[in-house]
Amino acid sequence: MNGGRTGRPADRPTVGITAAVETISYGPWRDVQAAITSLAYTEAVLRAGGRPVLLVPNRPDAENPEEALASLDALIISGGAGDLDPALYGEEPHPETKSVNPERDAYELALVRAAREAGLPTLGVCRGMQVVNLAYGGTLHQHLPDVVGHEKHRKRGTFTDHEVSVSEGSLAARATGADSGTEAVKSCHHQGVREVGEGLEATARATLDSVVEAVEDASHPFMLGVLWHPEEDERSRLIGSLVKSTQNSTREV
């Protein structure tokens, strides 16, 4: 399935970025639902020579994700403030599990599963990494502080800086350029991987507590999820690596 693509890389690869669904106020609109994403994602794609397009959660595309991916050369499952519905992995909500959006969950899970089948280069960021893990059958810790005993992965209203240890020879290492084996990252999350999904491998961990920080599918041209926010760091090579991977991508026709 190539969705109309010929297999020839575009001059400017089209990169779909999933939108967060948030309640916002602006102008005369008060407390309205909006599909938004940080411009940092689009700027990172533009710097890498790609064409960013926003993907808004909707039921028809969740039911037929192949059409949603048809015009894309790569996919970013973005982060966001809302947590994934714990019912997806058989749990009741933790008191700290907030702002669940089942429509967004269903949409993004469908996109990842279709991208897996199609061989479409895909990067999951923070919440998006958790989506990738669930799409492969994994589970989550609903509130990491209960597990690791600290809040160093998240500060309210800002990003935290820490280091991750990246597995040598992994896609995570190649995509970040982490030649030293470690990468300085920016994060803001309170959930994380508990059980790694079948077909995925954990290829980066936080140096401070060994929390899983990256998962990847070695059988896929580029299926990578990271728990940090590369779009917030202009030095990061990750999104550029995703865009570059489209030059060598072989999607199912």
TrEMBL record:
User: Which InterPro entries does the record associate with it?
Assistant: Class_I_gatase-like (IPR029062), Peptidase_C26 (IPR011697), PuuD-like (IPR044668)
Q: Which GO terms describe its molecular function?
A: gamma-glutamyl-gamma-aminobutyrate hydrolase activity; transferase activity
The record ties this protein, via SUPFAM superfamilies, to:
Class I glutamine amidotransferase-like
Instruction: State the Gene Ontology BP annotations.
Output: polyamine catabolic process
Q: Which domain of life is it from?
A: Bacteria
Cellular component GO terms, alphabetical: cytosol
Q: Does the keyword Nucleus apply?
A: no
Task: Please give one Pfam family short name.
Answer: Peptidase_C26
Provide the alphabetized UniProt keywords.
Glutamine amidotransferase, Hydrolase, Transferase
Keyword presence, DNA-binding: no
| CDD domains recorded | GATase1_2 (cd01745)
What protein does this entry describe?
Answer: Gamma-glutamyl-gamma-aminobutyrate hydrolase family protein
| Organism annotation | Rubrobacter radiotolerans
